[in-house]
Amino acid sequence: MTLRLILIRHAKSSWDDPFSDDHARVLNARGIASAKAIGGWMRDNGYEPEEILCSDASRTHETANLIMAELSTAPKLRLMKSLYHAAPDTLMDTIHRESVKTVALIGHNPGIGMFANGMVGNAPDHARFSGYPTCATTVIDFDAESWSAVQRHTGECVDFIVPRDLIGTTGGTDR
Description:
By secondary structure, the chain is an alpha/beta fold. Helix content is 30%, strand content 21%.
């Protein structure tokens, strides 16, 4: 059986209020455009999850909602406090408990980027993969009977993209 994992870093968020709570930061205009573009790309390529596991931070939740609005299906959204700045081991424990065939996980760096790098057998030939910029998205397939059987470095990277590949940039950085 093939299981599919879609790993997404949240879109670009706003730093307009330097005193705001990190958990409450929202997306900026570029982040909104990026999340919509990623959602459209996922739809156009048939990368539609049955369930989205998402950090409960404002920027990840907003990213999920914008992506979901572009999809042709309506995945179940689960906001999870445990995914806020989660380490790769926490992300692995989370997917090991899944039961649907196609799962998307929306999180934060450095954990989500480290997790993506650790799950694929061979990294994609893309200059941005190791840095995993905002709204970077990796589609990984596993030949496994259950999520609990999925192990590191066994996934096949089906696709990887960053918003800049879809809509370019208007300046600034992707960090």
